[in-house]
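Assess this one:
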Amino acid sequence: MTHARAALAAALALISSVPPAGAEDFRLSVPLDCTLGETCFIEDYVDNDPTQGRHRDFACGINSRDGHKGTDFALLDFGAIGEGVSVLAAAPGVVKRTRDSMPDDRLMRGVTSENACGNAVLIDHGGGWQTLYCHLRLGSVSVAPGDLVQPGDPLGLVGLSGQTNHPHVHLTLLRDGQVVDPFRPEATGTCGDPGPSLWTEPPAYTRTGLVTAGFSDAVPTLQAVGDGSARRPTLGPDEAMVVYAHLGYAQPGDVLTLSAESPAGTDLFRRAITLDSDQASQMQALGRKAPPSGWPAGEYLGRARLTRDGKVIAHRFAHVTVSN
């Protein structure tokens, strides 16, 4: 028997030998080689509101997106893509399928509903359980169909493939082909008291979140931020440059840091703002006028980072292009 056939036989034997797993004995570990609250955070959860056009996370909070089918573990720095951050198997199983052919493209050119997951790994855990890992870096997938993996085994590196414009790994949990929210496994599709989760070490949750962040040419109103009219994808070289952030359920004492970087990676402005309001919805902005010679042409990166007691609880990137 060849090595490939032997590996496949072992994989099939493992699948057939795993007894059907219920929510009481199936567990997940964090699928990213990072420290939550320091080098990464959970950006979006499974959407537990089946109504089209609306969303809510498992705790009835705002930290999800309409129709979102997984949990997003996001990095805080684009530079981490080049350095390499490992995507990790969340549970023992057998690699079922992989894809490693899509470019890392923040503009998402060539992305369709069929390849929105980007470079990916699908793992079968037996008992109907599967995990899907999306947006890996091109050329980084380090496993192949039939490989046996254990929790913490590297699968590849975080990238920008598929439908994403920032570095994160999207983890979808399936049972018998249906999405399961690991934070609310017994009642996915509803929200409230979550009960037991499927995490070996449940990540901390906060209802506070950053709804959005973006660039504008002036300090916008909350209404303009909410309806999207404030966002400017491009700016002229002589226009003011403003980074704004829309926050939900922030607490007094939370610290919001707003900043912008030039195409060369140097800071244009940065400020840490200690919040003193517990409004359910608020907006903060920071910016500066164009220099006398105008902004150099290129892509500018904005950041909105929210911390509580020194831990990162929310983060958003923003992008704008200056063209002469």
Q: What stands out?
A: The chain is about 10% helix and 35% strand. Helices lie at 3-17, 79-83, 222-227. The domain at 3-187 is CATH 2.70.70.10 (Glucose Permease (Domain IIA)).
